[in-house]
Amino acid sequence: MNTSKVITWTGTVWNGRPSILRKYIPEFESSGLSIVGPVREDNQDSIYWSNDEQIHNGSLFAVADGMGGYAHGGMASSLALESFSKILASQNGSAIPKTLQRGVESANIKVYQKAQQLGAGRMGTTLTAAYVFGNMLYLAHVGDSRAYLIRDGHATCLTADHTTVGDMVRAKILSPDKIRTHAQRSVLNKAIGIGLFVQPDITQHKLQEDDRLVLCSDGVWSVIEDADFARVAAKHTSVDSISQNLIDLALQHETDDNASVVVFHLKKLVEASAAHESPQENSWLQSLRKFLP
């Protein structure tokens, strides 16, 4: 049986630009779940999400998977998310992609420095973060956790795995259907904290009403086909049910890793003028949830 411990961190949201310039305010639901799984002794994943139904500023959702082969993977993942979140909260007025880049750089150096302080060798973690502002989705991604956009009954992976196998697929040396069973699937070639510098993938996508976004560690997607994400989302309407059923499915398929998901459902886009959006900065309760056995 998996038990959990919750760690919370409170900050103020960064709204990215003057509120009057935003056309839409998203009404949404979100949820997250992380378990140690049936094989591992500890949970090295960390997850983070905003759980406000409607928020006038941006909303952050993230998954980080501490590298099991290195010391203190759980510390690396939670430290990366905390550091990344603080940068977003403190950089009011900067361009969103630039701030995401700075957030990744801060997370990277914090994890790297912590490893040096502890004499722990190399500490590392993946980081896949989604920042929703208005009707736009911004992604910052390092490693092999994934972000799936589910729209009109189809699931699309929005991230590229920073792994040796991922490179082989992009070079057309290996077919995509061989990723999940390849012996070197988990060999990362890019991660947070294992060096002084890291270059994330920063992308942006326009959202539509009823879109769902699923962030997950490889303990989930490695045993679930892309089509299963869409199938679970179609069958279950609440974000809590989607989170739980994806974790249950990963367990049914005998995942051998920690399993973590964060689910976001964009229920409605309200025109900012109709919502009487205030230009003043609003406070935002952000929750960093780290699940341990």
Biggest beta sheet attributes: 6 strands, antiparallel
Mean pLDDT: 82
Instruction: Give the end-to-end Cα distance, rounded to a whole number of Å.
Output: 9 Å
Based on CA atoms alone, the radius of gyration comes out at: 18 Å
- Poorly predicted runs: 1-20, 277-293
Give, in order, the helices and strands.
EEEHHEEEEHEEHHHEE
DSSP helix fraction: 25-40%
The strand order across the widest sheet is 8-5-4-3-2-11
Which characteristics define this entry?
disordered C terminus, 11 strands, 293 residues, five-stranded antiparallel β-sheet, 6 helices, disordered N terminus, alpha+beta, Phosphatase 2c, domain 1
Q: Could you please describe the fold and organization of this structure?
A:
This protein has one domain: Phosphatase 2c, domain 1, CATH 3.60.40. The model is unreliable at 1-20 and 277-293 (pLDDT under 50). The termini are close together. It has 293 residues and is α+β, with helices and mostly antiparallel strands. Helix content is 26%, strand content 26%. It has helices at residues 73-90, 96-118, 164-170, 218-221, 226-235, 239-252; strands at residues 24-35, 45-49, 59-65, 127-133, 136-142, 146-151, 154-157, 201-206, 212-216, 259-271, 287-289. A 6-stranded antiparallel β-sheet has the order 8-5-4-3-2-11, with helices on one face. A 5-stranded antiparallel β-sheet has the order 1-10-9-6-7. β6 and β7 form a beta hairpin.
